C-alpha cells in the first residue's frame, strides 16, 4: 500500500439541527477568510488564527523556497505545495500536503488554530488535510530555507511537526530516508501517479533495516532495484557515488534509527533526489550559472540494475553475455538458460559439505548480493575468512568499510559487475570446484595444499625469473649483432646466429614479443627487427597485400603525415591495421623511429605493435585493429557524438591523460608525441582511447635537458603549442598544450581552429576562456552531453583544459599533475590566465620553415 505524505483528520459537528450545522460551517469559513484578508501576506510564518488563501504564498527568509497553492501540469485541481523559488522551470515542486484530497477550485484556505493544528479547508469548511497537532503553547508555522515546513512552539523553538517527516516523491538535503525503531516511524518516498497527478503512485523507495540496511525501489510489492549495502562512502550498487566538495552522503545505523541523508556543501549547487512516476530514482543538480536542472544519475540505469536479473548465484554484466554463473556453479535449467531466460539462476556443481578442502574464489568490482539475511560483525579480513570457513552454512563473505565483516548464508541474489568501482566478495566453493584458473584469486584452506602450493609457488617464481634473465641476455646478444651493421639489413647468418643464441638459452623456438600465434606462411624468416628493442615478426608483402585486398580503397581507414592506414585480415582470421609509409626521402628514418618507439611502449592507452614489413621500397607497420576508428569520427559527427555521454567522455579524457603520463614519465624512454589530435586517438570496442601515430615522436634521455629546438616543426595547426609552432621549441609541455585542446574539443564537439559564431570570430580556446571568466562554462558543452552528468565535473575538466593551453609553457602543468587534477576532487586547481588564441596558419610562421604542417579539417 502506497504511503501518503499527508495527515488527514475527520471533523464532525454535534447537534441535531441541520441548519445549525450549516451555519457553523459558513461562519467558520467566513472567519478564516476575513482573517486572511486582514493579515495579508504573512512572509515566512503563519501565526495562530492567521490564514493563507489561494494566490498568497509563504517565502522562506533567504528566498530559497515558496509555499502556496498550485495546479500541476494539465490538472485543474489545486494543491498546497512547496517549490523552489526563482529556479526554472517554474514550480519544481518538492512536497505536497493534500496529494490525496485535491481542491476542486481556488477557494482553499490554510489556517493555524490556537491549539496548534495546521489545517487546509475548502470553501465548504471541510478539512482536507491537517497536521493533527494539539495543545501547543504559542504555536507558529515557518517555511525554512531548507524547504522544511515546521510547526513549533514559538518560545522554545521545539519542533512538533515538520514536512521533512512526511516526504512525498522528493528527498531534499537534510531529509532522512529510513526508520525510527522507537516510534516505528518510517520515512520513504512515494512516486506521483503522473506529472499532473501528485497522488501516491505505484512506486516506493524505502530503507530495509533488516540484515544489513539497504534501500529498495519497489513497484507495489515487487522489487525493481536495490542499492546494495553501505560501504563506508556510498552504496555498493552505486560505484559513482563518491564523497566530494559538493555533496556529503551519510548512513546512520544504530539500535534506535537507520537512515540515509545527504547535504549540499557548495552554496552555488543545489540537488534533490526524486522518485519519478515511471519508477526511476533520480538525482538532479542545479548550478547557479546553468539554466535548469541537470540529471546527475538515475537508477535503474541498465538491465543489470534490475533486481535479480540473473537469478540466484548468477552474475550480470553489461560488457559480455548478460548472465553468467558464479565459478563453481551451473545453470539450474540449462534449456531455459540457452533461451536467455535466466530467472532460474544457478546451482552449485558440488554441494558444500563442510570439508577441510573448502576455499574461496574472489570476485571483484561487483554489487554485493542482497543482504536481508546477511550478518555483520566487527572482524578483520583474516578473521572474517576464518569465521566463514568454520561456519558450515556460510556461503560467502566480504569486508566492507562501515559494516565490517559481512557473511552470507544460502543463495547469493542480485550480483552485478562494474568496469570500475564496486566491492569484492569471496564465494565459498568445495575443493573439487575451486578452479584457480577461473578465479582472479582463490584461497584453499588445508595444510597440505598450502605447503605444496608454497613450494610450487617458489619454484614457479624462480623459473620465471630465470627465464626472463635468460631471455633478456639473449635479446642483448641480438641487439649487439644488430648494432654491428647500422643502417643496413641483417644478413641471414647474423639473424640465425642471434636467434639461435636466444633459443639455446631460453629453450624456446617462438618469436618473442608477440601475444598471439602467427602462421608460418604469414611471417617472413629473412628479416627481423631488434636493435635492442625486442623482436617483432616481419610479414611478407604478399601476405599484407592479400590481407588488405591489394590496399583497396574500401579498406582505407585514414591518412597521416607519413602514411596511409588500411584495414586487413590475416589468414588466421585476425584483424589488423596496416600503416603503409609514403615514399618520401625521410621514410627510412621515420619508419625506424616509429618502429623503435612502439616496440618499447606497452600501455593500455597506447596502440599495440604486432609486426612490420620491409620489402623493396615498402615500409609498413602492422598494428592492432581498433574497432571504432578514431576519436574525430565521433566528436565531430552529430549522429555518433550522442554515443559519447559525459561519463564516456570523462573516461576518454582520463585515458588519454594516463597514456601521456606514461610516455612522459613512466616508461623507460621519455617520449614527446608532437602530434596529439583527435584523429590520432583510436577508440576500441569499449570506446577506450589509445594514442597512435608516433611518426614524428622524439625521445628524451633521462639526463637530457627536457627541451629541444628544430628547424622543421611538424604537427597540426590548432594543436601545436605556440613556442613549437613559432620557434620550433618542443618539450613535454608541447604535448600538454595539445592535450588541453583535446579536452576542450571533446567537451564541446567543436574544432579549435573553427571560429565561434557570435564571439567575434574567436577560436575554441578563446571562447572557452571567455565563458569561464564570465561564469558560463557550461555553455561550451556539446548538446549530446548536456544534462547527462553533473556540471560540477564538467567545470573542473574545462578548467584543467584551460590550464594546459597557457601561452607560457611554464604555466602549464605536467601530465602527472593533470591526471591528479582530473581524478581527485580534493585537489585545488589554480585559475588559468588568458591563453593565446590561434586564428590562422599565419599565426605560426616567422622566418622559420614549417614542414609537414597539416590542417586537420
UniProtKB/TrEMBL annotation:
Residues 354-431 form the Apple domain. InterPro entries: Bulb-type_lectin_dom, Bulb-type_lectin_dom_sf, Kinase-like_dom_sf, Pan_app, Prot_kinase_dom, Protein_kinase_ATP_BS, S_locus_glycoprot_dom, Ser-Thr/Tyr_kinase_cat_dom. Keywords: ATP-binding, Disulfide bond, EGF-like domain, Glycoprotein, Kinase, Membrane, Nucleotide-binding, Serine/threonine-protein kinase, Signal, Transferase, Transmembrane, Transmembrane helix. GO terms for molecular function: ATP binding; protein serine/threonine kinase activity. SMART domains: B_lectin, PAN_AP, S_TKc. It comes from the Eukaryota. Residues 843-857 have a biased composition (Polar residues). It catalyses: L-seryl-[protein] + ATP = O-phospho-L-seryl-[protein] + ADP + H(+); L-threonyl-[protein] + ATP = O-phospho-L-threonyl-[protein] + ADP + H(+). The keyword Disulfide bond applies. GO terms for biological process: recognition of pollen; response to other organism. The keyword Disulfide bond applies. Residues 551-828 form the Protein kinase domain. Residues 833-857 are annotated as: Disordered. Residues 43-164 form the Bulb-type lectin domain. ATP binds at residue 579. Its EC number is 2.7.11.1. Pfam families: B_lectin, PAN_2, PK_Tyr_Ser-Thr, S_locus_glycop. The chain crosses the membrane at residues 446-470. Belongs to the protein kinase superfamily. Ser/Thr protein kinase family. This is Receptor-like serine/threonine-protein kinase.
Amino acid at each position: 500500500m502506497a504511503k501518503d505524505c499527508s495527515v488527514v483528520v475527520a471533523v464532525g459537528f454535534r447537534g441535531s439541527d441541520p441548519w445549525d450545522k450549516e451555519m457553523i460551517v459558513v461562519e467558520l469559513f467566513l472567519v478564516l477568510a476575513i482573517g486572511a484578508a486582514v493579515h495579508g501576506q504573512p512572509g515566512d510564518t503563519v501565526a495562530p488564527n492567521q490564514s493563507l488563501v489561494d494566490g498568497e504564498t509563504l517565502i522562506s527568509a533567504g528566498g530559497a523556497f515558496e509555499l502556496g497553492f498550485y495546479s500541476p501540469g494539465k490538472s485543474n485541481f489545486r494543491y498546497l505545495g512547496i517549490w523552489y523559488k526563482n529556479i526554472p522551470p517554474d514550480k519544481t515542486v518538492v512536497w505536497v500536503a493534500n496529494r490525496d484530497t485535491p481542491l476542486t477550485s481556488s477557494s482553499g484556505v490554510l489556517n493555524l488554530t490556537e491549539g496548534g493544528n495546521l489545517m487546509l479547508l475548502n470553501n465548504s469548511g471541510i478539512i482536507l488535510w491537517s497536521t493533527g497537532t494539539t495543545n501547543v503553547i504559542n504555536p507558529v508555522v515557518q517555511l525554512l530555507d531548507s524547504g522544511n515546513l515546521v510547526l513549533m512552539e514559538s518560545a522554545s523553538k521545539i519542533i512538533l511537526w515538520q514536512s521533512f517527516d512526511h516526504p512525498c516523491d522528493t528527498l531534499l538535503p537534510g531529509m532522512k530516508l529510513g526508520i525510527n525503531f522507537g516510534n516505528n516511524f518510517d520515512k520513504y518516498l512515494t512516486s506521483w501517479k503522473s506529472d499532473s497527478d501528485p497522488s501516491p503512485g505505484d512506486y516506493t523507495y524505502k530503507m530495509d533495516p533488516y540484515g544489513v540496511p539497504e534501500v529498495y525501489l519497489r513497484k507495489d510489492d515487487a522489487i525493481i532495484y536495490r542499492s546494495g549495502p553501505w560501504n563506508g562512502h556510498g552504496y555498493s550498487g552505486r560505484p559513482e557515488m563518491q564523497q566530494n566538495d559538493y555533496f556529503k552522503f551519510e548512513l546512520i545505523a544504530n539500535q534506535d534509527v537507520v537512515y540515509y541523508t545527504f547535504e549540499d556543501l557548495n552554496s552555488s549547487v543545489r540537488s534533490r533526489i526524486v522518485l519519478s512516476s515511471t519508477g526511476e530514482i533520480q538525482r538532479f543538480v542545479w548550478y547557479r550559472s546553468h539554466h535548469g536542472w541537470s540529471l546527475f544519475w538515475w537508477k535503474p540505469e541498465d538491465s543489470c540494475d534490475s533486481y535479480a536479473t540473473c537469478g540466484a548465484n548468477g552474475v550480470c554484466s553489461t560488457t559480455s553475455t548478460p548472465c553468467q554463473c558464479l565459478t563453481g556453479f551451473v545453470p539450474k535449467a540449462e534449456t531455459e538458460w540457452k533461451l536467455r531466460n535466466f530467472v532460474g539462476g544457478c546451482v552449485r556443481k558440488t554441494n558444500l559439505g563442510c570439508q577441510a578442502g573448502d576455499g574461496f574464489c574472489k570476485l571483484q568490482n561487483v554489487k554485493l548480493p542482497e543482504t536481508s539475511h546477511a550478518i555483520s560483525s566487527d572482524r578483520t579480513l583474516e578473521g572474517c575468512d576464518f569465521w566463514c570457513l568454520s561456519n558450515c552454512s556460510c556461503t560467502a563473505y566480504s569486508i566492507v568499510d562501515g559494516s565490517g565483516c559481512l557473511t552470507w548464508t544460502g543463495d547469493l541474489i542480485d550480483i552485478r559487475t562494474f568496469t570500475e568501482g564496486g566491492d569484492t566478495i569471496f564465494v565459498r566453493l568445495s575443493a573439487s570446484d575451486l578452479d584457480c584458473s577461473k578465479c582472479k584469486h582463490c584461497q584453499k584452506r588445508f595444510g597440505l595444499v598450502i605447503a605444496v602450493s608454497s613450494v610450487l609457488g617458489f619454484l614457479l617464481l624462480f623459473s620465471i625469473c630465470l627465464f626472463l634473465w635468460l631471455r633478456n641476455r639473449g635479446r642483448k646478444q641480438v641487439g649487439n649483432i644488430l648494432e654491428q651493421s647500422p643502417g643496413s639489413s641483417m644478413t641471414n647468418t647474423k639473424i640465425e646466429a642471434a636467434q639461435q643464441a636466444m633459443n639455446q638459452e631460453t629453450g624456446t623456438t617462438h618469436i618473442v614479443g608477440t601475444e598471439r600465434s602467427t602462421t608460418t606462411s604469414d611471417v617472413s624468416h629473412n628479416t627481423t627487427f631488434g636493435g635492442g628493442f625486442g623482436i617483432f615478426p616481419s610479414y611478407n608483402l604478399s601476405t599484407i597485400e592479400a590481407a588488405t585486398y591489394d590496399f583497396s580503397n574500401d579498406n582505407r581507414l585514414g591518412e597521416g603525415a607519413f602514411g596511409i592506414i588500411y584495414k586487413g585480415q590475416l589468414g588466421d582470421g585476425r584483424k589488423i591495421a596496416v600503416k603503409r609509409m609514403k615514399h618520401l626521402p625521410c621514410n627510412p628514418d621515420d619508419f625506424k623511429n616509429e618502429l623503435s618507439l612502439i616496440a618499447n611502449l606497452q600501455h593500455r592507452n597506447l596502440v599495440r605493435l604486432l609486426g612490420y614489413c620491409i620489402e623493396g621500397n615498402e615500409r609498413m607497420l602492422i598494428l592492432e585493429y581498433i574497432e571504432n576508428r578514431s576519436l574525430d569520427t565521433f566528436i565531430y559527427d552529430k549522429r555518433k557524438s550522442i554515443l559519447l555521454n559525459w561519463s564516456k567522455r570523462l573516461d576518454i579524457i582520463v585515458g588519454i591523460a594516463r597514456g601521456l603520463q606514461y610516455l612522459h614519465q613512466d616508461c623507460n624512454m621519455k617520449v614527446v608525441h608532437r602530434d596529439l589530435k583527435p584523429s590520432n586517438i583510436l577508440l576500441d570496442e569499449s570506446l577506450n582511447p589509445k594514442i597512435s601515430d608516433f611518426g614524428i615522436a622524439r625521445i628524451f634521455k633521462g639526463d637530457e635537458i627536457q627541451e629541444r629546438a628544430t628547424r622543421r616543426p611538424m604537427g597540426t595547426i590548432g594543436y601545436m603549442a605556440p613556442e613549437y609552432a613559432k620557434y620550433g621549441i618542443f618539450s613535454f609541455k608541447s604535448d600538454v598544450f595539445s592535450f588541453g585542446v583535446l579536452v576542450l574539443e571533446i567537451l564541446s564537439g567543436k574544432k579549435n581552429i573553427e571560429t565561434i559564431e557570435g564571439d567575434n570570430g574567436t577560436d575554441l580556446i578563446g571562447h572557452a576562456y571567455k565563458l569561464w571568466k564570465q561564469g558560463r562554462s557550461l555553455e561550451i558543452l556539446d548538446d549530446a552531453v548536456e544534462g547527462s552528468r553533473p556540471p560540477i565535473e564538467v567545470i573542473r575538466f574545462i578548467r584543467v583544459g584551460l590550464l594546459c593551453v597557457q601561452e607560457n609553457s611554464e604555466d602549464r602543468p605536467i601530465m602527472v599533475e593533470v591526471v591528479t587534477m582530473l581524478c581527485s576532487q580534493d585537489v585545488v586547481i589554480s585559475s588559468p590566465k588568458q591563453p593565446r588564441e590561434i586564428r590562422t596558419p599565419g599565426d605560426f610562421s616567422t622566418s622559420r620553415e614549417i614542414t609537414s604542417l597539416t590542417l586537420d579539417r
